[in-house]
Amino acid sequence: MIYGSIEAGGTKFVCAVGSDKLEIIERIHFPTTTPKETMEQVISFFSKYKVSLKSLGVGSFGPIDIQKKSKTYGYITSTPKIAWKNFDFIGELKKYFDIPIYWTTDVNAACYGEYVAGNGVGLSSVVYYTIGTGVGGGALQDGRFIEGFSHPEMGHMRILKHKQDLFGGNCSFHHDCLEGLASGTALEKRTGIKGQELDKSHPAWEIEAFYIAQCAYNTTLLFSPDRIIFGGGVMKQAHLVEKVREIFTDLLQEYVQIPAIDTYIVTPKLGDNAGTIGCLALAKEATS
Amino acid sequence: MIYGSIEAGGTKFVCAVGSDKLEIIERIHFPTTTPKETMEQVISFFSKYKVSLKSLGVGSFGPIDIQKKSKTYGYITSTPKIAWKNFDFIGELKKYFDIPIYWTTDVNAACYGEYVAGNGVGLSSVVYYTIGTGVGGGALQDGRFIEGFSHPEMGHMRILKHKQDLFGGNCSFHHDCLEGLASGTALEKRTGIKGQELDKSHPAWEIEAFYIAQCAYNTTLLFSPDRIIFGGGVMKQAHLVEKVREIFTDLLQEYVQIPAIDTYIVTPKLGDNAGTIGCLALAKEATS
């Protein structure tokens, strides 16, 4: 038996099948275009494995409807990506695959991946953020996602502007929320240079770290998690996490006694595989 | 059999005994002075009931150590109230009462009270804040407190200053965090008038509501709870919650579909009894 993983990101989809031990057997990716075109590729990939596919784990960009009693459970809801708004993701999959499907956000899936096989192993409470094209976050406590009327949308928390930041923010809902100021897109708009090409001495990194540190600060005060993991494209700049730790420590003023800072604020152990591993593990979860 | 409740607030202690049905049988309160003097009153009150007292629930001001494996479990830790710093609260109680004791923060206890007998009944996820002398918050999901390396310290989240607010904030750790700007103490320092004497047309209420609305906003984005309950002395101004709802709605920009606003942001059903009822319920919990 094998498990299927669908990481439905706003920019690209990653589909994979994996073993009971969460080993990836095959994986493909393709850009997120229209629902029709994109879902055709999803269906086509998994159709090859239809006989042995036991379940699917889906981590989707959002907001999504996760309320099982809701009429629109399994839908992508109020996304700014117009073509995907109110798209019945799970309904579409169910037309082709009559198997259990776990449905959650892309960041929750990555959080789960790190929780079961990465930097969250053995801990009780973990919060995961992705700082990429957008910013999103997910949290787990004792193996359960933090949620209520819906899943969290942590990327849109409010933060203070850096005094030297002249960029107004680019969140279409809130302008200068965390995502509006700290996403890879915001970083590029602020400097005119892509993050991966931005020299590590560039002052924009100080601004970026200030925003992520505030995110870590609020996360600490609201969840007191055992660990905060920052993933996503922007965090691939190895110098950034150290800057974040420094500013965070300064903000906290030792008000609470956190675990050792180098083990408290970290990047993902699984790197880009966190989402895939997480979706596979959630697919397994869906069968239990 | 009866249960005991100790609400250990920074300003006053409330001790009570109650029935299996969480009915309050007797309750007393006295100011928080030195640990010696205050604890003598606590011990004296419960000694009357020693024969029938089955367990105790304690909700304490903090930060406190809730890690059962820690050497300082049951202690008040880094509080700015010097006399109580590193005070072994549970150790002191255990000298006199060899019964199960539930140990948590004052706000967690109040949150639990509302969860089991107030405005949280029947919901999965509830966050409770007290806006009083200080600001604190606690959260429950499916009956379990949100926690990790420690309990949350939500009152110290960072928020944006109101443009018309000239007060610098009075948190001794972070100056202008939520507590530093929105506590009853801050409100009085800003205006020179006690909150309960401040006319509802005073512009300070708009500033106060702006801060509490940001708190509700961040709470929504990080937890997506089913309900947020704002208690504490400052919230007794009935006009305030309506202002908070208005500003919160404006901040959210309908990014996520919250429950109906009048049921989403509310004041405590149990009023000042939330903490006592919560501690009694937690005392019961400690025996199971």
Structure in words:
2 copies of one chain form a homodimer. The first copy, chain A, has 288 residues and is α/β, with parallel strands linked by helices. The first copy, chain A, folds into 2 domains: 2-105, ATPase, nucleotide binding domain (Nucleotidyltransferase, domain 5, 2-Layer Sandwich); 119-267, Nucleotidyltransferase, domain 5 (2-Layer Sandwich), CATH 3.30.420. In chain A, 34% of the residues lie in helices and 22% in strands. Chain A contains 9 helices and 12 strands. In chain A, helix 3 crosses helix 9 (274-287) and helix 6 (204-223) crosses helix 7. The longest helix of chain A has 20 residues, at 204-223. The model of chain A has no long low-confidence stretch (mean pLDDT 96).
Helix content of chain A: 25-40%
What is the end-to-end distance of chain A? 14 Å
Shape of chain A: globular
Oligomer: homodimer
Question: What low-confidence regions of chain A span 5 or more consecutive residues with pLDDT below 50?
Answer: none
The SSE order of chain A reads: EEEHEEEHEHEEEHHHEHHEH
Structural class by SSE content of chain A: alpha/beta
**Average pLDDT over all residues of chain A:** 96
- Describe the main β-sheet of chain A briefly: 5 strands, mixed
CATH architecture designation of the largest domain in chain A: 2-Layer Sandwich
For the CA atoms, what is the radius of gyration of chain A? Answer: 19 Å
Q: What number of domains of chain A? A: 2
**Strand numbers in spatial order across the main sheet of chain A:** 3-2-1-4-7
Q: What is the name of the CATH topology of the largest domain in chain A?
A: Nucleotidyltransferase, domain 5
